[in-house]
């Protein structure tokens, strides 16, 4: 169990020099589990298999652990953050669930097919798909966004969601669900994250449209739009002085922890949300957005 308190304690200034960042280098590390557990004794996903992209750390790790505690086996897809991914695997296994680690770039359609193929070969089914992987590269002006950056951001954040749904859908049956990670920036915008915000807006529209397209198949599609959450992406994105103040501009005056976001994904993955599709949940520290 990670003891870091979920309060308004300031984080020390820190930076990382790679995307999407390494959780084990953060101070303090993000909280991936709540204590006492919200899920003890509830095996709502027993016998099911979930794929979680970006599952090595941050929100993805917290979701993987929550799913495992609810009884699911978890496929953790991640880029190359091996140490973080192995810790996630240990946390999943401590819950009595099985885990499969699949490294690689979800911006490549062939790799997305590989994730799905490995999931089927290992566990035999795909019941929940969580499209969570993402990157962000702030720029002061739109003219500073290079074609290379634009393509990288879109490939990782939204193209990957198309690729994974295309690969997974033939294996998903009635009662399965897809959960996409959007962002509060899809609703309020971000002048320094123009391309990132654009992908998150696309994810909201993708979620709504796909939910309609799959309704007759009995497959639900929803999204979660987190606000400022303490994940490796933050020190990997912003200068140290901004990291120290991260999250203090929301009504709750603090950044959220991944463990405070994971319950949204758990709710949307179970029969408790059986009449909800095409919707977005907003764990964002009290910011009111229309969406």
From TrEMBL:
Domain of life from the UniProt record: Bacteria
Positions of the UniProt region annotated as Disordered: 1-43
Keywords associated with the record: Oxidoreductase
Biased composition (Polar residues): 11-21
PROSITE patterns: ADH_SHORT
Pfam families in the cross-refs: adh_short_C2
Similarity annotation: Belongs to the short-chain dehydrogenases/reductases (SDR) family.
PANTHER family given in the database record: NADPH-DEPENDENT ALDEHYDE REDUCTASE 1, CHLOROPLASTIC, NADPH-DEPENDENT ALDEHYDE REDUCTASE-LIKE PROTEIN, CHLOROPLASTIC-RELATED
Protein name, as recorded: SDR family oxidoreductase
Native species: Compostibacter hankyongensis
Classification of source organism: Bacteria, Pseudomonadati, Bacteroidota, Chitinophagia, Chitinophagales
